[in-house]
Design a protein that fits this description.
It contains eleven helices and eight strands. The chain is an alpha+beta fold. The strands form two sheets. The protein has a four-stranded mixed β-sheet. Strand 2 and strand 3 form a beta hairpin. It starts with 6 loop residues before the first helix and ends in a 6-residue tail after the last helix. It binds flavin-adenine dinucleotide.
C-alpha cells in the first residue's frame, strides 16, 4: 500500500500554498458576524473565486478545479495553516452546494451555484424552530401552495448569519395534514422577500451572529423548490450528511489549531512559564488532530471507491467537535489568567484568539445535530443496538 501523495497532488498543494501566501490580507478582517466583517469576508470570497480557489472540488463549469477529495483536503490544510480568513459562505458552498448538485435542476444549478461560489450570494440555513431543534421532523412552519407559489407562515431560529445573508434554504411543511417527516419541502428563499422579517440575535460573545426569521404570508415561487414537493426530508438528509461528514469541518482546521497549541507550549517553555503537567494534554490534542486527519483520508479513499459514508458521519462529528473543545480548553489552562482575555481586549495580542475559539468550540457539540443525537444514531445505525 502506498500512502504517499502523488506528484500531482503535491504540486496542487504547493500552488495553493503559494497563492495563499501572496493573497492573504495583511491586516486581519473584522469578525464576519458583524455587518462590516460580513462584507469584507464577501470580498475575500470574490478574490478566491477569481483565481478558482473558492470551490476547488466543484466542476470547472461552475467555477471549481474539478479536483478529487484528497486535493480538497490538502487545500483545506493549506488554507487553515496559512491563517486565511474564515469562510463566510460555508452554509452555501459546503452544505447547500453539494445538495444542489444532487437534487437541483439544471436551471437551479446554473442560477445558484456560480453566485454562491463567488460570494455574490451568501446563504443561511433556516431549519431550527423554537420548538424543533433535535427533533427536526416536528417543524411547524407552513408553506401552503397557492398556484405557482408557496405561502410561508411561521418562525425559524438560530439562523447563523441570517441577519445579512442574501438567501436562505428552509424546510417547511407544505402538506398541512402531514406528520413528522412526510409532507415537508425544501425551499430556497430570497432574504429580501416580502413577508419575511429578520431579527438579529446575539451570540455568547455579544456578536449578532444569529437571526430569528419570521414568515408572515411570505410568497416563494415554485421554481425555488429543491427536489419534489413533499420530498423535503430526503433532500434535508443529504444536506445533514454533508454537515456531519467531511464537508463542514475538514481536519485542516484542527491540525492548524493543534500546531498553534504545540507552538504555545514551546513558547511558554522558553519563557519558563509552562505548566509541564499539561504536556500530556497538549500531546493528546495534537495526536487527536492527526488521528482525525488520517481517519478522514481513509474515509476519502472509501468514498472515492464508491462506499457511502452514511451514519458513520455521526462518529466524525462527535470526534471533531469534542477534540476542538479539548484543544482550546488545554490552551486556556496553559495560559492561566491571560487566557481569560477576549480577542478584542487591548492586551490580548494573539492570546485572545484562544478564548474566542474556546467559546465557539462549545457550540460544536450542539450545531449540526447535538452529540447526544449523534450518539443515538451511532448506537442504533452503526452498532445495531436496540431502540429504547
Ligand atoms: C453555533 C450554532 C449555530 C447554529 N446555526 C444554525 C443555523 O444556521 N440554522 C439552523 O437551522 N439551526 C442552527 N443552529 C441550531 C441547532 O441546529 C440546534 O441548536 C440543535 O439542532 C439542537 O436543537 P435545540 O437547540 O432546539 O435543542 P433541543 O433539541 O431542545 O435539545 C436540548 C437538549 O436535549 C438533548 N436531546 C434532545 N433530544 C434528545 C434525544 N432524543 N436523546 C438524547 N438527548 C436529546 C439535546 O442533545 C440537547 O442537549 C445552530 C446552533 C448553534 C449552537
Amino acid at each position: 500500500m502506498d500512502l504517499d501523495f502523488t506528484r500531482h497532488q503535491l504540486a496542487f498543494r504547493d500552488e495553493a500554498r503559494a497563492w495563499l501566501a501572496d493573497n492573504i490580507p495583511t491586516d486581519p478582517l473584522p469578525p464576519m458576524d458583524t455587518p462590516e466583517g460580513f462584507e469584507s469576508h464577501r470580498e475575500w470570497e470574490g478574490l478566491l473565486y477569481e483565481d478558482r480557489w473558492s470551490v476547488v472540488a466543484w466542476p470547472e463549469s461552475h467555477g471549481g478545479r474539478d479536483v478529487g477529495l484528497v486535493e480538497w483536503l490538502l487545500f483545506e490544510e493549506e488554507y487553515y495553516r496559512s491563517g486565511a480568513p474564515g469562510r463566510v459562505n460555508t452554509n452555501g458552498i459546503s452544505l447547500l452546494g453539494p445538495t444542489l448538485f444532487t437534487f437541483g435542476t439544471e436551471a437551479q444549478q446554473d442560477r445558484f451555484l456560480p453566485r454562491m461560489a463567488s460570494g455574490e450570494e451568501i446563504w443561511a440555513q433556516g431549519w431550527s424552530e423554537p420548538d424543533s431543534g433535535s427533533d427536526l421532523a416536528s417543524i411547524s412552519t407552513r408553506g401552503i401552495r397557492e398556484g405557482e407559489w408557496f405561502v410561508l407562515d411561521g418562525q425559524k431560529t438560530w439562523c447563523s448569519r441570517g441577519a445579512w445573508a442574501d438567501w436562505l434554504f428552509c424546510i417547511v411543511r407544505t402538506d398541512p395534514e402531514s406528520e413528522r417527516h412526510r409532507g415537508l419541502s425544501y425551499l430556497l428563499v430570497p432574504a429580501d422577500a416580502d413577508g419575511l422579517e429578520r431579527r438579529p440575535v446575539e451570540r455568547l460573545d455579544g456578536e449578532p451572529a444569529f437571526a430569528d426569521l419570521f414568515f408572515d404570508g411570505c410568497r416563494v415561487h415554485e421554481s425555488n423548490l429543491l427536489g419534489g414537493e413533499g420530498e423535503g426530508w430526503n433532500v434535508a438528509m443529504a444536506t445533514t450528511s454533508s454537515e456531519r461528514g467531511l464537508n463542514l469541518r475538514a481536519p485542516g482546521r484542527f491540525l492548524a489549531a493543534a500546531d498553534r497549541l504545540a507552538d504555545l507550549y514551546r513558547e511558554l517553555l522558553e519563557d519558563g512559564s509552562a505548566d509541564r503537567d499539561l504536556l500530556d494534554e497538549v500531546v493528546r490534542s495534537w495526536t487527536g488532530a492527526q488521528a482525525y486527519r488520517w481517519q478522514t483520508y481513509r474515509t476519502a479513499a472509501q468514498l472515492s471507491g464508491g462506499t457511502e459514508l452514511g451514519a458513520a458521519s455521526s462518529m466524525m462529528k462527535i470526534f471533531w467537535s469534542e477534540l476542538d473543545v479539548e484543544l482550546h480548553a488545554t490552551a486556556l489552562r496553559l495560559l492561566g489568567g491571560r487566557g481569560e482575555l477576549m480577542a478584542a481586549a487591548p492586551d490580548a495580542v494573539d492570546v485572545g484568539a484562544w478564548m474566542s475559539g474556546y467559546l465557539f468550540s462549545l457550540s460544536g457539540p450542539i450545531y449540526a445535530g447535538t452529540n447526544e443525537i449523534q450518539r443515538n444514531i451511532v448506537a442504533e445505525r452503526v452498532l445495531g443496538l436496540p431502540r429504547k
